[in-house]
Amino acid sequence: MDISAEAQLVLYVVVCGAPAAGTVSTLVDLAQKERWQVRVIATEMGRRFIDAEELARRTGDRVRTGFRMPDEPDELPAADAVVVAPATFNTINKWANGIADSFPVGLLCELMGFGVPILAVPLLKDALARHMAFSRSLDALREMGVRVLFDPDAPSHARMPSWERVIEEIQQMLRDRARV
After folding, report:
1. Which of 123, 135, 144, 180 could tie 86 with a disulfide, CB 3.0–4.6 Å?
2. Considering the domain boundaries, does residue 1 fall inside one?
3. Can you give the residue range of the structural domain that contains 15?
4. Which molecular function GO terms apply here (predicted)?
């Protein structure tokens, strides 16, 4: 499936609090070059690592962090795919266990129920990557259909794939889905 030949698809980018979040605008630009309409959702900590005003300018929409009130309109277009990058220890564990105490994690739990293709790209310290809860959470997410880009044997500085690799993987996920 050639995404550029399709109507514009919607990609949610969920950003957590890790250093790679500071360069997520590169992912946004790459996705837009591939004709994605991008919406950025950030955890509270993730918001500290990004330039929300710049991302809003690039995407044409504000960065979302909190839940909307019941009387407020749902302004997010339906997602065709989701990238969670960088995904932190906290977000991965809460998400896998259905602890929807923040908008980004609640949204991820809900999107899984709708069957939206989701790519998780964890980035965390070595000690946290060795924690039993983390490996169990990755297994649970994979079991629920989430694709995970994470090499536990890679040195910590090389665990985060390039943003180009992330875009390639999400496009491959859609091609795989189209074949089924």
Report:
1. 123
2. no
3. 7-66+78-179
4. FMN binding; phosphopantothenoylcysteine decarboxylase activity
172: Cα within 13 Å, side-chain hemisphere: 10
Looking at residue 135, what is its pLDDT?
Answer: 96
**Residue 72 domain-assigned (yes or no):** no
State how many domains the chain has: 1
Read off the pLDDT of residues 132-151 as tens digits, 9 standing for 90 and up: 999 999 999 999 999 999 98
Q: What is the pTM of this model?
A: 0.93
Contact between 9 and 114 under an 8 Å Cβ cutoff? The reply is no
Residues in the chain with pLDDT values less than 50: 1-5
The pLDDT, as a whole number, for residue 72 is 78
Calpha distance 43→54 (Å, rounded): 17
Q: Is residue 141 in a domain?
A: yes
Among 153, 61, 170, which residue's Cα sits nearest to residue 42?
61
List the CATH number of the domain containing 117: 3.40.50.1950
- 109 domain residue, yes or no: yes
